[in-house]
Amino acid sequence: MSLESTFLQACAKQPVNHIPVWYMRQAGRYQPEYRAIREKHSLVEICRIPELCFEVTKLPVKQLGVDAAILFSDIMIPIGAMGLDFEIKESVGPIIASPLRSKADIDNLQVFHPEEKLPYVLKTIELLKDDLSVPLIGFTGAPFTLASYMIEGRPSRNYIRTKQLMWSDKALWTALLDKLGAMIVRYAKAQIAAGAAAIQLFDSWVGNLSVADYREYILPTMKNIFTELKDTGVPLIYFGVQTGELLTSFAQTGATVIGVDWRVPIQAARARLGYHFAVQGNLDPILLFAPWEILEQRTREILDAAMDRPGFIFNLGHGVTHNDPPVAVDTLRRLTKFVHEYTEGK
Ligand code: CP3
């Protein structure tokens, strides 16, 4: 499987037969089959039942013809395993019962053993590894994004408490980030050992930081994480939203593939990163609601800009959104087919 995978070839900046495609949040509520499962099971329940999680992960591969699967889980699952209870509230997002408020709270967080605390995640990966015809992407949240939920206790607009801790007690902030870093390394390695062929670190909200703050308070931990994961040999994808100005710093993290959102043209992203990275992105996910002609035009523009050198993976600039009425499954299927056909043999 792996040698023939366009996704892995693109991650390694090798020539491909066609540009590989996958979508962040390719499993979710836009799919009628997923909604039917969610009527009976909560999101966390799906994650905890390997046979169910296996089906949900596979569904978009069958339905859309994408070139990679992403493990169905959530960035909050390991936060629970560290000892913070959470729930995911529909249309709100993650809520933490007792957010981090003191040094003692941070000291109490456990850098757990995934085999002990999250065996169901690893079991799901093992089931998928033996079944999928495309590579499986494992993932975890990145330290800033995880810390923001753990400190704010809920989705946040301004990250006031998070930034307050960062600026007011650097030692404690560093202790928290390093603890998260140690957890992330362990969890990612366990996913790789179970069969994940690549790892994506979701740093969705890190784009809220200035370049100076990113470099001072986040970059050292990111470097440690990617240094420790380097020997696994799998592609390491680092993604965030509104990170245009951070890309030159992202280039120093040790990630091998950089995910960019739709605000940065691919050529500009490559110029900022330097040309030894594979790049993933970056269609505005709201274009999935546009007339097909516009969606196709913007997609063609991305591909024309990206295809002049190897190392490009087509994706959205952020996840498939949940809306009512939802994105049509047919739109994503047609988009996948369009990217494959437009880039075939070029
Ligand atoms: O991409 C995939 O198909 C894999 C599954 C996946 C989920 N969450 C499932 C999920 C992945 C990769 C994630 C990551 C995740 N979770 C991130 C980083 C990526 C991003 O979108 O920025 C974040 C910030 C979270 C936290 C989270 N979980 C939020 C903000 C929400 C949405 C809350 C809402 O109802 O609007 C969730 C819930 C969630 N996680 C859903 C899915 C499919 C929504 C559907 C449901 O509740 O069943």
UniProtKB/TrEMBL annotation:
Protein name, UniProt field: Uroporphyrinogen decarboxylase
Function field: Catalyzes the decarboxylation of four acetate groups of uroporphyrinogen-III to yield coproporphyrinogen-III.
Keywords for the protein's UniProt record, in alphabetical order: Cytoplasm, Decarboxylase, Lyase, Porphyrin biosynthesis
UniProt site (Transition state stabilizer): 74
EC number, as in UniProt: 4.1.1.37
UniProt-annotated location(s): Cytoplasm
Coiled-coil parts of chain: none
Residues engaged in binding substrate: 25-29, 74, 149, 204, 318
UniProt similarity note: Belongs to the uroporphyrinogen decarboxylase family.
MF (Gene Ontology): uroporphyrinogen decarboxylase activity
Organism: Alicyclobacillus mengziensis
Cellular component GO terms, alphabetical: cytosol
Assembly with partners or alone: Homodimer.
GO BP terms in the entry: protoporphyrinogen IX biosynthetic process
Uroporphyrinogen decarboxylase (URO-D) domain residues: 20-29, 137-153
Biological pathway: Porphyrin-containing compound metabolism; protoporphyrin-IX biosynthesis; coproporphyrinogen-III from 5-aminolevulinate: step 4/4
Gene name, Swiss-Prot/TrEMBL: hemE
Catalytic reaction list: uroporphyrinogen III + 4 H(+) = coproporphyrinogen III + 4 CO2
Main localization of the protein described in the UniProt heading: cytoplasm
